[in-house]
């Protein structure tokens, strides 16, 4: 029996970029770029300090050997050995950091509840969003009712999985160009739900050119960090990506902990603020819809 097709196979054809473009999703940055506030935000996330692991495979005396050992290994090995040093598990961190308990992670899990931009549903190597249990009962049912009004399907723009709502971080492992395409797809799916929510309460201007998602692509030695944001003109929304930092962790002169610190700062600083922003929009949703719909 042949093994199942790898999830990245459909993205190996560079023509997927044109497929994205037809759907209003772009691998590149918009000509006008991010807003000034958003630029200051990601710079702060890159620069803010975080405690680092005391001993790891990134230590100077072993990182060279580590890079050589994993050079020809598969993604499972990279996820086991390298990914925790780039984007640590938020579920594991929450054991000692209860303030992270409102977050929810997925590991190589199909976002089966999502509405894909193209014909495929995302399946990031690692993803983070908000736990369904983080919302109040009223918020949960108001948001569910809102998206039920605009979607006639079992999937929802606000969901990734039954446990994860409004995903906002994606990590993909593999050839960098390929992983970037996967991340763009993942985050475009994720951003649509937020834009539709804010459009539903006439507050879409608040998310125009603002960062609504982050992603990391890495292989056996290189890491790239990107931000994702919508550009909204009336009823039309396009989604863009900007690569904000890259490094080769096999280079002795690089800051190989840049992605780790950045991801920890996302968990500690940006994600709570993003969650509060989403909850604020949900709170503005009506309790009852015209025609009798209510939560």
TrEMBL record:
One Pfam family matching this protein: DUF7924
Residue span(s) of domain DUF7924: 64-282
InterPro entries, per database record: DUF7924
Domain of life per record: Eukaryota
PANTHER family per UniProt: PTHR42470:SF2, VAST DOMAIN-CONTAINING PROTEIN
Descriptive protein name: DUF7924 domain-containing protein
């Amino acid at each position: 029996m042949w093994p199942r097709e790898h999830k990245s196979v459909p993205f190996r054809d560079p023509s997927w970029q044109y497929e994205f473009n037809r759907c209003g999703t772009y691998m590149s940055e918009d000509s006008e770029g991010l807003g000034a506030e958003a630029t200051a935000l990601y710079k702060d996330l890159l620069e803010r300090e975080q405690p680092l692991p005391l001993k790891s495979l990134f230590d100077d005396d072993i990182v060279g050997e580590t890079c050589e050992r994993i050079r020809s290994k598969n993604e499972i090995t990279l996820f086991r050995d390298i990914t925790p040093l780039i984007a640590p598990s938020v579920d594991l961190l929450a054991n000692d950091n209860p303030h992270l308990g409102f977050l929810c992670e997925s590991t190589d899990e199909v976002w089966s509840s999502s509405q894909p931009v193209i014909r495929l549903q995302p399946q990031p190597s690692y993803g983070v969003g908000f736990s369904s249990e983080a919302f109040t009962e009223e918020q949960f049912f108001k948001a569910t009712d809102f998206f039920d009004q605009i979607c006639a399907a079992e999937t929802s723009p606000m969901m990734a999985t039954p446990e994860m709502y409004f995903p906002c971080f994606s990590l993909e492992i593999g050839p960098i160009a390929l992983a970037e395409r996967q991340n763009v797809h993942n985050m475009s799916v994720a951003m649509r739900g937020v834009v539709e929510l804010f459009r539903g309460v006439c507050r879409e201007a608040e998310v125009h050119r603002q960062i609504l998602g982050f992603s990391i692509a890495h292989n056996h030695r290189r890491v790239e960090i990107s931000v994702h944001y919508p550009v909204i003109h009336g009823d039309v929304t396009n989604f863009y990506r900007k690569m904000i930092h890259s490094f080769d962790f096999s280079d002795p002169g690089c800051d190989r902990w840049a992605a780790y610190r950045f991801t920890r700062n996302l968990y500690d600083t940006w994600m709570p603020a993003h969650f509060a922003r989403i909850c604020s929009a949900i709170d503005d949703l009506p309790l009852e819809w015209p025609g009798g719909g209510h939560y």
